Amino acid sequence: MKFTVSEIAKMLDGTTVGDDTVTIDSAAKIEEGQPGCISFLANSKYEPYIYTTQSSAVIVNKDFTPKQDISATLIYVDNAYTAFTILLEEYQKRIATGKSGIEQPSFLGENSQMGENGYRGAFSYIGRNCKIGNGVKIYPNTYLGDFVEIGDNTIIHPGVRIYDNTVIGKNCCIFANTVIGSDGFGFAPQTDGSYKTIPQLGNVIIEDNVSIGSNTTIDCATMGSTIIRKGVKIDNLVQIAHNVEIGQNTVIAAQAGISGSSRIGEQCVIAGQVGISGHITLANNTKVGAQSGIGKSIKKEGLSLSGSPARDLTEHLRAMASTRRLPELEERLKQLERKREASEH
């Protein structure tokens, strides 16, 4: 798919310096650009590459002032990183619109409805009484249970499994092999040492503009709903347990796990391999460093946490610095002990 620089600038509400008739057919890192590519410069440490890049065009911030001649056409925007993201989204959208119609074999259950301009891939299965919006793409080998609802322009990638009664909003993207709505981990211990399965009767609600990475699992609620609020971005290989609620625009990186009935606030950032205990609350704008463990509620907003158990980031870094000095402190202690013993003799 090809665009001229002028078309891209109009799309991004930007202005150009240079030849805006150049045709762009791909995107590349600024240090790896070739003719026909478009790149972006958002981090000043990459500025040297803008003077040597072979990319045909580069998106830059409005306050960028070149120190040397630049062969590429420049597109000036308010925020280069955001603009480049918008460009990639548009490119992806136009590619996705190429998929339409119904491939066979595929199955649409009794009383299920699918909107206009959609796509159902081969071997996809849609159960009974489902409501699928306009422009929805359901890729091959996908399973939707009964009474599932999906909003307009949502994309369900290959191999996704969506259980009964799940509700998914508009403009969502669910990547391959994710499972939504399977049973939560609920077992009641018995007097004989065995466990009795607790029926999981709730559902999952995913609001608009949510992205969920590959091989992520979101369990249905025991009762009520597990809820993913609008704008949430979830990485691959994330586990979200029953009755969890994730606040809007929160970001969760790979291999994080959130235990049952926890409440994660808005605008939180949860890094990779973070573990969060059940029945706790994380305040809005909390940032949790990689491999941290959260064992109690965080009520103050805007904290940055790290470690296991997690604590304030500054305190954690100070403790880590002290830990690195332990061998030195141990040697000093031994010297003091030797001096004391010598003085006693």
Automatic annotation (TrEMBL):
<feature type="active site" description="Proton acceptor">
    <location>
        <position position="242"/>
    </location>
</feature>
<dbReference type="GO" id="GO:0103118">
    <property type="term" value="F:UDP-3-O-[(3R)-3-hydroxyacyl]-glucosamine N-acyltransferase activity"/>
</dbReference>
<comment type="function">
    <text>Catalyzes the N-acylation of UDP-3-O-acylglucosamine using 3-hydroxyacyl-ACP as the acyl donor. Is involved in the biosynthesis of lipid A, a phosphorylated glycolipid that anchors the lipopolysaccharide to the outer membrane of the cell.</text>
</comment>
<keyword id="KW-0677">Repeat</keyword>
<feature type="domain" description="UDP-3-O-[3-hydroxymyristoyl] glucosamine N-acyltransferase non-repeat region">
    <location>
        <begin position="22"/>
        <end position="89"/>
    </location>
</feature>
<dbReference type="GO" id="GO:0016020">
    <property type="term" value="C:membrane"/>
</dbReference>
<dbReference type="Pfam" id="PF04613">
    <property type="entry name" value="LpxD"/>
</dbReference>
<keyword id="KW-0012">Acyltransferase</keyword>
<comment type="similarity">
    <text>Belongs to the transferase hexapeptide repeat family. LpxD subfamily.</text>
</comment>
<dbReference type="InterPro" id="IPR020573">
    <property type="entry name" value="UDP_GlcNAc_AcTrfase_non-rep"/>
</dbReference>
<dbReference type="InterPro" id="IPR018357">
    <property type="entry name" value="Hexapep_transf_CS"/>
</dbReference>
<protein>
    <recommendedName>
        <fullName>UDP-3-O-acylglucosamine N-acyltransferase</fullName>
        <ecNumber>2.3.1.191</ecNumber>
    </recommendedName>
</protein>
<keyword id="KW-0441">Lipid A biosynthesis</keyword>
<dbReference type="InterPro" id="IPR001451">
    <property type="entry name" value="Hexapep"/>
</dbReference>
<keyword id="KW-0808">Transferase</keyword>
<comment type="subunit">
    <text>Homotrimer.</text>
</comment>
<dbReference type="GO" id="GO:0016410">
    <property type="term" value="F:N-acyltransferase activity"/>
</dbReference>
<keyword id="KW-0444">Lipid biosynthesis</keyword>
<dbReference type="InterPro" id="IPR007691">
    <property type="entry name" value="LpxD"/>
</dbReference>
<dbReference type="InterPro" id="IPR011004">
    <property type="entry name" value="Trimer_LpxA-like_sf"/>
</dbReference>
<comment type="pathway">
    <text>Bacterial outer membrane biogenesis; LPS lipid A biosynthesis.</text>
</comment>
<dbReference type="GO" id="GO:0009245">
    <property type="term" value="P:lipid A biosynthetic process"/>
</dbReference>
<keyword id="KW-0443">Lipid metabolism</keyword>
<dbReference type="Pfam" id="PF00132">
    <property type="entry name" value="Hexapep"/>
</dbReference>
